[in-house]
Amino acid sequence: MIRILLADDHPLTRAGLVAWLESEEEFELTGQSFDGESAWSDILRLLPDVALLDIEMPGANGIEIARRIRKKQLPVGVLMLTAWNAQQYVMASIQAGAKGYVLKTAPFEQLRQAIYDVARGVFYIDPSVSLAENLEPVEPLSAREKEVLLLVAQGLPGHAVAKRLSITERTVQAHLTSTYDKLRARNKTEAILLALKRGIVMLDELQVDSEARD
Questions:
Q1: Rounded to an integer, what distance in angstroms lies between the CA atom of residue 142 and that of residue 171?
Q2: pLDDT tens digit sequence for 166-179
């Protein structure tokens, strides 16, 4: 049985999700919230297996709640359920500690799989979020290319990456260009999402506290 807490400020959306969750034998709906702060209180009190969070909510948003869960190291998997399809929201959610990201347009079968995956610690991203490219085999990243990609994904600017690795900014850019070419990505966000989907990068490698950054 997977214990789930639902937080969404839209009454109709929440009602539909509640009805579906309560109809699923494998799920137990432990609580529902309509804003971020009440969701946070319920998470601390109930410690669900999965917190199903909308991103935009009154009070603390879903990304902030994910960040608090990670900071306190609570045994709660965060699954974002949102209307936002923009890559910056996906990356912000991942870096805050979310293990899954699903659009509200997804079918219930897909949401069910996402809940299963997040509950067992497996990263899940909605297939329709971002990437039209298929996941054909690509040339492996070198150790240094992966290192540069991770540091940039964690928020370090090029000069800080160069300083950390004792290389030049031009070399940093060269590694990123090579990485984008290998992954068939157009930018940093797309590259890191593709790397996650391919298993080249693990979710925990992205979740670095801001205090640890240069």
A1: 14
A2: 999 999 999 999 99
**Strand (E) or helix (H) holding 5:** strand 2-7
| Cα dihedral 8, 13, 17, 19 sign | positive
Fold of 143-212: Arc Repressor Mutant, subunit A (1.10.10)
In 56-211, the DSSP E strands lie at 77-82, 100-103, 124-125
Say whether pTM exceeds 0.85.
no
Lowest mean pLDDT across 109-113, 194-198, 205-209: 205-209
Torsion, CA 2, CA 93, CA 202, CA 156, rounded to 10? -160
Quickly list H helices, 29-157: 36-46, 62-71, 87-96, 108-119, 143-153
Fold of 2-125: Rossmann fold (3.40.50)
Q: Are 52 and 66 in contact (CB under 8 A)?
A: no
Q: Where in the chain is the domain with CATH 1.10.10.10?
A: 143-212
Q: For position 214, what pLDDT does the model report?
A: 45
Residues 6 or more apart in contact with residue 213 via CB below 8 angstroms: 154, 155, 156, 160
